[in-house]
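Researcher: Quick test of sequence recovery. Tokens follow.
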């Protein structure tokens, strides 16, 4: 196990003050990255769910003009869950051994599943607010009004209405964060291994993860963000379509996740599952870089 991993494990295990501090740092890192998502997150959803914009730039301009900066927000808890799961795997492994990449992926997937309990209804509300008509035709006056009206829709319980598309949300989050953390850890470890292959062990100290420059950490974090979306984007498209769908038999286009996949394929082919990927990848690099560089 690398020295940095040992230090993190010691700080995060046992539930003491160090563990609390570590968890708070993990949560802060996730929140900092979430704030950085701003405009392009909404652009992605609008391009997925409507044809009213001619381009990503046109969508961004109209959204900012009509709705202002208050339309942009993100909540994130994945770092705390990831490091908790990672510490559980570390405790199961032989002393001194590193986590396998499958364990890193599983830790990320666990973080995604944990995050989905919060991100599912929050993103549902956000998508409803983002895709509603403007002006006098607005359906919701704000998030609270949106929650109230979604919960009161007939045909299902309030919880089921708020958690519409939750299965595909869980699938997206698990795939996305598994790929995210796996890619970052692989690139960090590869950097250390590559550097240590070129040193003289008699005269030079082995490189540690802590010795990797900040710009490289940010670069690897940004590239991990690209991996996150490339691995999970089709799930995200299906989720957005389901969470912007109408309520009730007369208004609903999709009976469920499978029906949404089938109809999207029939109407748009494989391209239908990748609409909006451009601005998403543009967003992913700086957002993910900033998250890991905290």
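Model:
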């Amino acid at each position: 196990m690398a020295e940095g991993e040992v230090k993190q494990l010691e700080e995060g295990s046992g539930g003491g003050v160090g563990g609390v501090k570590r968890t708070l740092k993990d949560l802060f890192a996730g929140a900092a990255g979430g704030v950085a998502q701003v405009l392009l997150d909404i652009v992605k959803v609008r391009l997925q769910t409507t044809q009213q914009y001619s381009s990503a730039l046109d969508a961004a301009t109209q959204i900012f003009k009509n709705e202002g900066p208050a339309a942009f927000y993100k909540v994130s808890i994945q770092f705390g869950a990831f490091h908790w799961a990672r510490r559980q795997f570390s405790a199961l492994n032989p002393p001194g051994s590193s986590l396998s990449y499958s364990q890193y992926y599983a830790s990320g997937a666990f973080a995604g599943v944990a995050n989905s309990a919060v991100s599912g209804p929050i993103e549902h509300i956000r998508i409803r607010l983002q895709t509603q008509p403007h002006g006098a035709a607005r359906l919701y006056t704000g998030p609270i009004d949106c929650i109230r009206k979604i919960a009161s829709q007939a045909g299902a319980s309030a919880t089921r209405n708020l958690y519409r598309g939750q299965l595909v949300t869980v699938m997206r989050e698990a795939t996305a964060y598994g790929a995210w953390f796996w890619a970052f850890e692989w690139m960090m470890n590869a950097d250390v291994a590559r550097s240590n292959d070129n040193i003289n062990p008699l005269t030079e100290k082995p490189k540690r993860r802590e010795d990797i420059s900040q710009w490289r950490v940010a670069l690897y974090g940004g590239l991990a963000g690209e991996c996150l979306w490339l691995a999970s984007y089709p799930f995200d498209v299906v989720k957005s379509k389901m969470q912007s769908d109408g309520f009730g038999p007369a208004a609903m286009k999709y009976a469920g996740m499978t029906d949404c996949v089938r109809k999207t394929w029939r109407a748009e082919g494989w391209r239908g599952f990748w609409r909006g990927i451009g601005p998403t990848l543009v967003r992913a690099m700086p957002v993910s870089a900033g998250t890991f560089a905290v």
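Confidence is low (pLDDT under 50) at residues 1-15, 68-75.
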